[in-house]
Amino acid sequence: MACVFVLVACGMHFVEWCAQAVVRALWQGRIQFLYVMVGSNGNHGAEMDNNGADFDSQPRSFPQVFNALFVGGSPSDSSSQILRLREGTGGQFGSTIVTNVGSQGVANSDCGSEVQTQAASLASVSTPVPNYLWFSPNNIIYGVGSTFTPSTDAFAVSSGCTGLSSATSTDPELVLIPATADHTSVMVDPRPVLNGAAYNNVDRAPLNG
Fold this sequence. Notes:
Blueprint (H helix, E strand, L loop, with lengths): L4 E4 L4 E5 L10 E10 L6 E6 L12 E10 L11 E4 L4 E11 L4 E4 L5 E3 L14 E4 L4 E4 L6 H4 L1 E3 L16 E3 L12 E4 L17
Parallel strand pairs: 1-3, 2-4, 3-5, 4-6, 5-7, 6-8, 7-10, 7-11, 8-12, 9-10
Antiparallel strand pairs: 13-14
């Protein structure tokens, strides 16, 4: 993985795939070095689905997302969920920061038989690819909204989905991403402060191949 993706103020959903009426094979691929600025005009930083008509449709969606930064709209952002993982999607999410969350961080809904896991490391996941959704407990979900409570708002997990509940709630310590950062901000710098919180407990991305 060696690509850099920068998405700023794209509109509704920044990173998205879903089943269509004809094509039922969903996306399996790798994303690394991703920076998403949702902005006040945005909605969700990512909406990642398998198949709304058949949550267990194969091949199952299986994104591998590492070294990613999702910046929410603002403290007053009322759009729930910066990340939406739905309709039976599998995947791996490590070394990921979800910050400036106004209301909710990560939603998981409409699950199939895939296993939702927060194993301490990717290597310790025993379920075969692509039938699991791993969201590292080392990932940072940091809220700036006045109503955001880490214990209840980091994850919004619907009935039938279990396993996602733990994340690091500390300030990720970015160089210049204030709580009010928006797509209209004149100056932002999303790099992590040297030896700051973003450098702690980093999950290694899987090797290519």
